[in-house]
Amino acid sequence: THFSAHDKAHKTDNPKLPSVAEQLTMSSENLMRTIPTNPTWSIKKNSKGKNMFWFGYKLHLAVSTTTQYIVGSLLSAAFVSDSSVAIPLLRQVTAIGSKPSYMMMDKGYDVTAIYHAGHQLKIEPIIDFNRRREITSGEVNEHFHPTCFLEYPYKYDSVDKRYQALKFTSPQDKCQTCPLRDEGMCQKVIKIKQTTNLRKYAVPARGTHAWEKLYNLRSAVERVNGYLKNNYQLSNVRFNGGKATATHVSLIQLTYNAVKFAVERLTKKQLLNV
């Protein structure tokens, strides 16, 4: 989420950051040194599709979707893209001993290197697909499920963990009336290794109810963003400079987690007394 700086707005020279692919080969310490924390200008589209300018920072949060605790965070200059901070943030989360099964991210993080980083940390990426003018061939549907000769999509069945391959079965409801049913031309089962294309092939497969259910959990971070801005003074930073702002933001997050923990303990105690 973004927030404005207390500093007087001025023109800044934005340094070039290492690409996301380069970050895979960098140590966490060196990677952290490349992230600028001074306030800068940036631009983004708001919910109405209009350009919005601000001078300040971005706060990148990793939030537990089950508890809504903040489990990782990084402060950066406003011009830094979301994808540029994903890998150090993931490493930060796992460094504290957290072992998430999935990571849910919007299409701004749809970069091949981020998928590789997730698999290196044994976290399954559930990331909205950014098509980037990519053309889908007739051999797959819009969710990259294989299709039959008549272009009906196969249905995702399961994953073969031995080979990390997604298993798709023929669309039986369409096969019953298919003119090619008795020609012996169609495969009943198709398996595709996930490593064929990590962006396209997730577990569970894109386009399934299970994938959508996981991706919808991403709304947890939006709620936490709202809490921090509306109730914890994130949108009202009163300090100049990146170091003071970073301390301010850290205290906000500590307070949020502490209050949440205290409320849960008090609620549990009240329930036991009842």
UniProtKB/TrEMBL annotation:
Gene Ontology annotations of biological process type: DNA transposition
Pfam family, one: DDE_Tnp_1
Recorded coiled-coil stretches: none
Example GO molecular function: DNA binding
Domain (Transposase IS4-like): residue spans on this chain: 35-257
Domain of life: Bacteria
Name the record gives this protein: Transposase
